[in-house]
Every structure is written in structure tokens, then in C-alpha cells.
Amino acid sequence: MSRRRFRVIGAGALIALAVAVGGSGNAAAFAAPSPASPSPSGSTHGSAMFAAMMMSHHEEGIELAQLAIDKASTPGVKAVAERSQRNQQAELPQLRQVAQGANMSAQPPEPPLSRFNEQEMSQLQSLSGREFDLAWLDMFSSHHMSAIMMADMESATGTGEAAELAKKIHDEQLQDVSEMNNLRDQLR
After folding, report:
1. pTM for the complete prediction?
2. What's the CA dihedral at 87, 88, 91, 95 to 10 degrees?
3. Strand, helix or coil at 159?
């Protein structure tokens, strides 16, 4: 598993996300139109799109965290996974409420990203011990950085509950990334 590959795929996903959430592209291609009228930044539609996309992202994060809870050999890796899983599970109902406010539901990744995610999960599942821990830290850090960027976009343009939740996601996941970087340094 190559860090460069994660960065290239992640960058492409984030560009697509920026276009969808930022309103520069056709967000309707990603979700059904909402009864709330689409408007510039801070719109109900934009916040609902953020929540719909973050719901799927959190569901994937919960699955990745469970994998580390089950397989990690380093106590610190398990601790990060457990905390992150708890945080993401607690945030799902709030995200669902924001998305449903504009008649949206979780938006799964587009087929190229979902296939990539399936391949990476399969590779990760085949590893064990220190090799698993390092690969998981790389994958989960990249996963968190995507969420942080999504949250930062919502924080900059959104208002109300969605913007507050985005700030919380940013702060929690940035803390996790910092801890994962420290763990990675210790394991190398």
C-alpha cells in the first residue's frame, strides 16, 4: 500500500467533493433535489449535501475502526480506533437529521472510489501485527484527512447545526491524526 497512491486517489476525491459541495458543479448528480431552494454558501442544500456525504464517510470510518479494534497489535492503535468509532457513531444521528432536513440520505462513494475502498480493505484484512498497524494508520489518517477537508468546507460556508458539527468533526479527527502520526513514528 503506497502513501503516494492514497494521496493521488484522495486528492481526486477531494476535488470531486469540492465541486459537489462547493456548488461549482452539478450537485444534483450526487443527490435528489431538496425542497429547500439551493442558494449560495451556507445553504440548507449545501449543509444537507455535506451531511449526506459525511454519513457515508463515517459509516466507512466505523468499519475501518472496527477492523483495527479486532486486529491491531498496538494498544494505542486500538485506542484511537475505539475513540474514533464512538465519535463517529455518536455523530451519525445528527448528520442524518441535517441531511433529512433537505430530503437527502447517505451518499455512497462513486464507483471508482468504492472499488478502490474495497481493494484497500481487502489488502488491509490480509495483514497482521505491526504491518497491519502501520498500514491501518496510513489508511485511517488519509480517511480522516478527507473528513477534515469536508468539515472545513462546511465550516467556512455553512451555518447552524451543520457548521457546528463540522467544527466538532474537524477537531476530533485532527486530534486523532496527530495521535496516529505519533504512533506511526513509534512503530517505524
Report:
1. 0.76
2. 160
3. coil
